[in-house]
C-alpha cells in the first residue's frame, strides 16, 4: 500500500500530530509520502519526520488582534492557484490518501476517486460534539474544506461519534516527569498582540511567565521571560510549568491534559473551532475559559490547583495498525478499545 499524507501547515498542532503518525508509519516500513500546505515552506518547523515532502501554498486564515478576519481570509487566499494544484496533483501511484485537514490532497482524492481518510480534530465536527459560533458559513467550511470518504475525529470525548482520543507527542518528554516549578506559567497566545499580553502580565508579580512569541532572542524583564518559539524549548518549559495560558487549539490542550497541567484558554474570537473547543473544555470540566484577555481571570485561575493527568493511550500506534490492515474492521471497535483505556475523564455534563 502506498499512501499520500496531506498535512495542514497553518497550525502547529496539525504538524505535531502528523509527525507522530509519520513515526509510527516509519516503524512499520510503510510507503508514505507527505504533502504540506497552508504556510510558507521557510516558516515550517518540526518537519524532519516527513522526509523529502512536497509543498503547496494551499489555503489558510488571516488573523489580527485575536480575531479571525473573514474578508481578508477570503481575499488573501489564492483560490485559483489551489484549484490548479488540486488538478495537477498526480495520485496515480497511491492506494490511499490521508488528510489532516489538508485541502489539496483531500480534494484531489475526491475528484480522482482515490480512497481517502480524514484524521483531524476538525473531523470531529461531523458528529454531535459541543459547538459554538457555528454559523452556516462555518459549517460549510468545516465540512468541505478538506472532504474525505471516512472521517476520524480526535477529541477529549467520543460524544458517540467516530472520535478517538488525542494523538499525543511524547517523544522527548521523559514521561512528563520534569520537576514542576510552582510559580512558573507558560504563555502561548499566537493570535494576540504581544504588547497587549506583556501589558496584561506585568502587574501580576506572584508568578514567572514564560511567554513564547515572535522574537529572535530570549529577553528577561523581571518576572516576564520572553522566548522565541521552538518545539524543543517549548516542551521543556511546558513540562516544568504548573499551568499554561493559551489559545483554544486542540493539540496543545491535549498535551496539557495528558501531563496534568492546569489551563486557562482564550479562544480566537470569530473562529468556530476554537469557540467550540472552549465550550467542550467547560462542559467536560477540563479548563478555565476567558472570552477576552482579563487580568482578574488570570489571578483567579492562578490560585487553582493543577488537575490529575488524563493518560491517553498510544492512539497513533493503534490507528496506523488499523489503516494498514487489509481487513480493516469498523472504526467503532477501535474507538471503544481506545476510550476504554482512558479512565480519568469525566462524562459530558448535561
The CATH class label of the largest domain is: Alpha Beta
CATH level-two architecture of the largest domain: 3-Layer(aba) Sandwich
Helix content: 25-40%
- Largest sheet properties: 7 strands, parallel
Low-confidence stretches: none
- CATH homologous superfamily of the largest domain? Glycogen Phosphorylase B
Give a description of the structure.
With 350 residues, this protein is of the alpha/beta class. The N and C termini lie far apart (44 Å). It contains twelve helices and 16 strands. β6, α4 and β7 form a beta-alpha-beta unit. The strands form three sheets. Strands 3-2-1-6-7-8-9 form a seven-stranded parallel β-sheet, with helices on both faces. A seven-stranded mixed β-sheet has the order 12-13-11-10-14-15-16, sandwiched between helices. The protein has helices at 12-27, 70-76, 79-88, 103-112, 136-144, 194-201, 231-240, 251-259, 272-284, 295-302, 315-324, 331-339; strands at 2-8, 31-37, 54-56, 63-64, 67-68, 96-100, 116-120, 150-154, 163-164, 181-188, 208-213, 219-221, 224-228, 241-246, 262-265, 288-289. α1 (12-27) crosses α11 and α3 crosses α4. It has two domains: 2-167 and 313-339, Rossmann fold; 174-302, Glycogen Phosphorylase B (Rossmann fold, 3-Layer(aba) Sandwich), CATH 3.40.50.2000.
Amino acid at each position: 500500500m502506498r499512501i499520500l499524507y496531506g498535512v495542514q501547515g497553518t497550525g502547529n498542532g496539525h504538524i505535531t500530530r502528523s509527525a507522530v503518525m509519520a513515526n509510527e508509519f516509519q516503524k512499520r516500513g510503510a510507503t508514505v509520502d507527505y504533502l504540506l500546505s497552508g504556510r510558507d515552506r521557510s516558516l515550517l518547523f518540526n518537519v524532519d519526520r516527513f522526509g523529502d515532502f512536497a509543498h503547496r501554498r494551499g489555503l489558510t486564515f488571516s488573523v489580527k488582534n485575536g480575531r479571525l478576519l473573514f474578508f481578508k481570509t477570503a481575499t488573501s487566499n489564492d483560490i485559483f492557484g489551489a484549484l490548479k494544484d488540486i488538478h495537477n496533483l498526480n495520485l496515480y501511484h497511491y492506494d490511499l490518501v490521508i488528510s489532516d485537514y489538508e485541502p489539496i490532497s483531500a480534494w484531489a482524492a475526491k475528484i480522482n476517486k482515490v480512497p481517502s481518510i480524514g484524521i483531524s480534530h476538525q473531523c470531529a465536527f461531523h458528529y454531535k460534539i459541543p459547538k459554538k459560533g457555528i454559523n452556516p458559513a462555518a459549517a460549510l467550511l468545516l465540512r468541505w474544506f478538506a472532504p474525505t470518504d471516512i472521517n476520524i475525529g480526535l477529541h477529549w470525548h467520543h460524544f458517540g461519534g467516530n472520535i478517538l482520543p488525542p494523538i499525543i507527542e511524547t517523544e522527548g518528554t521523559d514521561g512528563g516527569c520534569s520537576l514542576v516549578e510552582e510559580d512558573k506559567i507558560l504563555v502561548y497566545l499566537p493570535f494576540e498582540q504581544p504588547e497587549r499580553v506583556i501589558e496584561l502580565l506585568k502587574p501580576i508579580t506572584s508568578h514567572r511567565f514564560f511567554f513564547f512569541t515572535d522574537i529572535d532572542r530570549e529577553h528577561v524583564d523581571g518576572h516576564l521571560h520572553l522566548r522565541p518559539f521552538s518545539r524543543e524549548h517549548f516542551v521543556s518549559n511546558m513540562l516544568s510549568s504548573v499551568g499554561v495560558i493559551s489559545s483554544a487549539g486542540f493539540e496543545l490542550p491535549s498535551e496539557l491534559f495528558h501531563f496534568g497541567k492546569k489551563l486557562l484558554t482564550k479562544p480566537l474570537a470569530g473562529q468556530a473551532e476554537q469557540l467550540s473547543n472552549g465550550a467542550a473544555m467547560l462542559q467536560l470540566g477540563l479548563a478555565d475559559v476567558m472570552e477576552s484577555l482579563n487580568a482578574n481571570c488570570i489571578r483567579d485561575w492562578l490560585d487553582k490547583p493543577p488537575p490529575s493527568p488524563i493518560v491517553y493511550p498510544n492512539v497513533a500506534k493503534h490507528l496506523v495498525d488499523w489503516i494498514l490492515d487489509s481487513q480493516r474492521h469498523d472504526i467503532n471497535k477501535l474507538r471503544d478499545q481506545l476510550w476504554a483505556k482512558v479512565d480519568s475523564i469525566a462524562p459530558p455534563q448535561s
